[in-house]
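Lay summary

Proteins are chains of building blocks that fold into shapes. Our project writes down both the chain and a compact code for its shape. Here are two examples, one after the other.
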Amino acid sequence: MKISDLLSPADIMLDVRAKDKSRLLRELSTRAAAEVGLDADQVSEEIAKREELGSTGVGNGVALPHARLRGLKAPFGLLARLRQAIDFAAIDDQPVDIVFLLLLPESADGAQLNALACVARVLRDPEALRRLRGASDNEALYRAIAEPSVV
């Protein structure tokens, strides 16, 4: 699975303003719900439930909030780069400025479950993070995450 299988250029948000983690997750959930045709409250609730199990702030300024949802047919991603980093209770206690919200079908198969690993792998790459943080517009932000790094 590739990032481009679950993220489209239209699902990029640049310079998002967020006062706190819960408001950010609500905003991203609402946007994602509209894109996939699900109820915004349902999406927001499932994302919040997962977050209660432990922060999805994975370190290096990155968060990967995710949830499985009834009624979703295929994995869906939404990438947001925040204007200003916020506290996310990340594992390294660092504020987060890159958020990849991932929605998975409730009965996700093995290939779909690979979506989370795929996103995590890309966002662990220091070069990919540098490109994401340096992107000047939505198109550059999309290319930074969806295209393999040039070695």
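And here is the second example, written the same way.
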Amino acid sequence: MDVSITEKDGETEDSEIIRVYDIEPNTRKSFSLPKRSRYYQAVTDIKLLGSGVGYDKLPGLITIWILPYDPFGKNMMIYHVKNTVEKMN
């Protein structure tokens, strides 16, 4: 059972989606979690962005994985993962 919640900038029919929350429960240990995450993000993006629409219209995406194990082996319950760009010297 997956859950997808959309957050809009208003309450009208033509309100823009500004953020999507994708909740992915996983009942067993998966050794391909990074690729599964990439796949689910791509599927979500395809549903949200029509052909010919600029990428700037793509809403924010927050994915929450609920796992019965620690995927990084650091004995933590929550990890915050972000995409960042750093200056290289």
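What can we say about the second shape? Residues 33-48 form the longest helix (16 residues).
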